[in-house]
Amino acid sequence: MVDINKITLKNNAMFNIVMRREKLCKMCLERILNKRITRITYPESEKVIDIDFDSKSIRLDVYCQDEDTTYDIELQNGIEDDLAKRSRYYQDLIDLDLIDKGSDYKELKNSIVIFICTFDLFGKGRHLYTFENLCLQDRDISLGDKTSKIFLNTKGTLDDIPIPLRNFLNYIDSGEITDEYTKELNDTVIEVRRDKRWRGKIMTLEEYAQQKAKQAAKVAREEGINAVNTLYSNLIADGREDDMKKALSDEEFRESLFKEYNINA
What is the pTM of this model? Predict the structure, then answer.
């Protein structure tokens, strides 16, 4: 059973609900981008982009815009190998969706896709990784396509960002309140927990996520066991059963094998 009082801003559903507060979302963007934003609007309450029947539809966590920029903010808790390509796909579909609504490509706004990650996707210790299209031969030349992809890391170790952004990332990671903004975020989280309109939705989504995680772990374990059995059968077929038994008696080898094939030793 999910304990609603333990749900924090690190939870995707909670993050989405809290960031529907225009003031909090605007302050979040201001800290990430280190610039002043006059106001933001939400084109739709829950943005789903599905270009056609051949496309993979996406549901954006927080989709908003100001006078000249469209923002997509995604909270990412689990490490996924395809995260960089997913950011590309999101940005492409956002542009296609805007054009589909009648905009000419010359009128496309700046587009910024932001992933707030609770892990270091690139392993360099940075809190902030920003990507834009530059010329490889001369990095002073920007393509000027008005697109950016930003990956934030709540577990960064370098002194590479302003204190307000660091406070925000620390709050997501640990719940530590260090300034007025993180206090307001925390107050809103508590408010949402107490709101009957949201309690059921958050708990249902969290239970569903836990169920899916258990199913994925079970499938991975079964696949791992099948892979080891196949390996064992191949070694027997090659007359190397003794080699396999000897290897499995080595604790370090056994642990590395089980880790590779997602099996709990």
Answer: 0.72
